[in-house]
Specification:
The chain is of the alpha+beta class and 215 residues long. A hairpin with a 3-residue loop joins β3 and β4. The chain is built from four helices and seven strands; from the N terminus they run βαβββαααβββ. Among the domains are: 96 residues, 2-Layer Sandwich (Double Stranded RNA Binding Domain); 50 residues, SHC Adaptor Protein, CATH 3.30.505.50. The relative contact order is 0.09. 40% of the residues lie in helices and 24% in strands.
Length: 215
C-alpha cells in the first residue's frame, strides 16, 4: 500500500515517518488486499497539533482526525489508533455480511417444510389407517388449510458511534465540501462557509447532493 506524508508547518522527520509507516502497516494487515493507499497530513497551528489520516480501499475510505496540544507525535498516534479501529469495524462488518445467506436459509427451512406438508396433505392420498377404518373403500380427501408464519428474526439494538469524519474542521467553499464528501464517502457532510454559516450536504437516494443551510 502506497503511503504519502504531507507536513503543513511541520517537518516530516525520520521518527514521524517511521511511526506513520508502522501504523499504516498494521492497518494494511487488517484490510488485506483491499487497501489501496494512505495519505497522512500533519498540521501545526499555534498551540494545535493536528494529524489527519485518509486510507483508501477498493470500496470505502477511512478518515481519522485527531488533535493534540502536547506534540504532533501524540496526535499522530491517536489518529493511527482511530484509523485502525475503523479498519477492524469494516472487516468485521464484511465478515458478518458474508455469513447472512446461510442464516437466511436456516430461517426459511421451517417454512419450506410446512409448505411441503401442506402439499402432501392436499394430494388426496388416504393413509393406511383411514383405509382400514373404511373397510378398504376409497376415502375422500378433505381440504386442509395450513398457515405458515415467518420465523422471528431478532432485532439488533442500534449501534451509535461518533462520526468525526463527517464534520470539517476548517471553513470550506461548496466545491471543496462536495469533493471532500466524495473522498470520505459520506452521505452527510457538515461544514462552515467563509462567513461561519453551518452548511449540510446530503446525498439523496437518486445520488444527487442537496445543500441544507442550518438556521
Amino acid at each position: 500500500m502506497q503511503l504519502e506524508c504531507t507536513g503543513r508547518q511541520v517537518a516530516i522527520t525520520k521518527s514521524l515517518r517511521s511511526l506513520a509507516e508502522e501504523g499504516i502497516e498494521r492497518i494494511r494487515r487488517v484490510l488485506g488486499r483491499s487497501a489501496v493507499g494512505a495519505h497522512i497530513v500533519l498540521t501545526a497551528e499555534k498551540h494545535r497539533k493536528i494529524a489527519e489520516i485518509k486510507v483508501k480501499t477498493r470500496a470505502h475510505s477511512l478518515v481519522a482526525l485527531c488533535e493534540s496540544a502536547v506534540s504532533i507525535e501524540s496526535a499522530l498516534r491517536e489518529a493511527l489508533a482511530k484509523a485502525e479501529a475503523q479498519a477492524l469495524r469494516l472487516r468485521n462488518k464484511a465478515r458478518s455480511q458474508k455469513r447472512q445467506p446461510s442464516e437466511a436459509k436456516q430461517l426459511e427451512s421451517p417454512v419450506s417444510r410446512t409448505r411441503a406438508g401442506a402439499r402432501a396433505a392436499g394430494s388426496g392420498k388416504a393413509s393406511p389407517a383411514k383405509s382400514s377404518l373404511s373397510g378398504g373403500s376409497r376415502s375422500k380427501a378433505l381440504p386442509v388449510t395450513v398457515h405458515s408464519f415467518p420465523a422471528r428474526v431478532p432485532v439488533s439494538e442500534p449501534h451509535i458511534v461518533r462520526a468525526t469524519d463527517a464534520v470539517a474542521l476548517r471553513p470550506m467553499t461548496l466545491e471543496e465540501a462536495v469533493k471532500e464528501a466524495e473522498f470520505r464517502d459520506r452521505d452527510v457532510f457538515v461544514f462552515r462557509d467563509d462567513k461561519g454559516n453551518v452548511m449540510i450536504l446530503h446525498r439523496k437516494r437518486d445520488g444527487k447532493m442537496e445543500l441544507i443551510e442550518a438556521p
